[in-house]
Amino acid sequence: MPTVKTIEVGRVTPPPEDLVLRLSALDAQWITIPLVQRVLLFDDAGGQLPPFPSLASSLRVSLAATLARFPPFAGRIVFIPSTGDAAIDCSASDEEGGGVRFVVAEMEDADARKLAGDADHDVDAFKALVPELAVEALPAEVLAVQVTRLKGGVAVGVAMHHAVVDGRSVWRFLKAWASACRGDMADTAAVTPSFDRAAVALPDGEELARSTLRKYAPDLPLAPMVFPPGPNFPRRTFTVAAQHIHRLKLRISDLATSPTSAQATTPAPSSFVAIAALTWVSFVRSKHPDAISAKDDVYLFFFRDCRGQRGIDPPVSDNYFGTCITGCLAKATAQDLLAEEGIAAAAAAVQGEVRRAAEDPLALWEWMDLLSWVPLDRFVNVSGSTRFPAYEAADFGWGTPSRTELVTMNNSGQLVLVADKGGSGGVQASVCIESDHMDAFSSHFLY
Asked: What is the dihedral angle through the alpha carbons of 369, 374, 379, 385, rounded to the nearest 10 degrees?
């Protein structure tokens, strides 16, 4: 069991902003599902890392500069009893508990090269490398950072409140912070975030946000987590090379257009659709017949970014910084996915949800209701995107990470996607599933 020794706990506090942002209904659903915890691992095999004290200092100074441009991260989520709203209050000073908790630590019994290189996650070590957030009652923290010295490397861990950020916002913030740390002012200035929650045009927006809060967090300012950290299910990371993705797309297209196919003609799948379909089929086949029977319905859930979608009037700006995602739920029978052309059936179901969400992006915005009845043992949950620049965005001046992982993976059947390192068109796919099914899943996924 890895042990972490805390060296220092401080706060990074930019000048407070006179800015209060009331949560939208899209934000409000996340008030009791708050954590996004991600770890960035840097292996010093090439001797490129600066001395640890200098590295930690650079991260702290550049974080302060970045927070000045992203004031919600230095704020607190607060409850306003007079109106029933929850809001991001960016005005708290250091004396009032504002700013970002910044932890400096060491874990000398953890080897950076091994953590970065093993396909199977050391779940306990990864959890020890990310900070917690104080979120069970409002006011709640928005961001905390932990920098940990490892044997042969460094880990940068972040915890963010999901009512303030979605995946796209996470990577935009990390890219801005990394740019500031390495002194790339042109890249830093390229990001002009917009925080106006009114930009997401939901009917009766303010009252809808309040009713959403009352529905999912009826005891505010108490906000206990709906899905507290679960068991340490095994987690394994796969690198899907661009050539493999290309072959996978061709296979799906060939199966979908074969004379025996029951699938309607569909366009060629995207990388996201192809990998989601492969994961879904692998999940069902790995759990059949002992946990999933052929007659069962099975489900795959994913989020779709609403920015720039024509189905929202006016469209949400590409620079909108907040939670701007809607739910998508694909359904199939296990028998269809177990068939020889099962991956084409899976891809068609996922593509159908992509098309539906493009036509009416906000139709299923209340995704927690959508999932309230889904049987979790027959359910794949996809997080992230094949386009998230997880490695290129996180170059703080000493090279891209050796590895980055989402630590908050609590459910069997979870898939987390980011673009692979090197910009080659490959994808990193991290999967969480019970130990009894992991090897079978891998054999199907790596067909």
From this structure: -10
Number of folded domains that form the chain: 2
Does residue 117 lie within any of the structural domains?
Answer: yes
DSSP annotation of 204? T
Beta strands in 227-309 (DSSP E): 235-240, 297-305
Listed in sequence order, the residues at least 6 apart from 206 whose beta carbon sits closer than 8 Å to its beta carbon are 22, 85
Q: DSSP label at 152?
A: T
Do 184 and 275 have their domain in common? no
Q: Where a domain ends, among 216, 247, 274?
A: 216
Do 251 and 191 share a domain, yes or no?
no
Residue span of the structural domain in which 154 resides: 5-216
d(CA 425, CA 245): 9
Per DSSP, what are the bridge partners of residue 194? 320
* pTM of the entire predicted model: 0.94
Query: What tokens does 248 get?
Result: 């996978």
Question: 257 and 201, same structural domain?
Answer: no
Task: Dump pLDDT digits (tens) for 262-320.
Answer: 555 467 899 999 999 999 999 999 999 999 999 999 999 999 999 988 878 888 989 99
Q: Residues 6 or more apart from 19 whose CB is under 8 A from it?
A: 71, 72, 75, 90, 91, 195
- The predicted-structure confidence for 239-250, as pLDDT tens digits, reads as follows 999 999 999 999
Q: Determine contact, residues 142/12, Cβ cutoff 8 Å.
A: no
Query: Quick one: which of 12, 5, 33 has its CA closest to 410?
Result: 33
> Does one domain contain both 244 and 212?
no
228 in a structural domain: no
Of the CA atoms within 13 Å of residue 310, those in its CB half-sphere come to 4
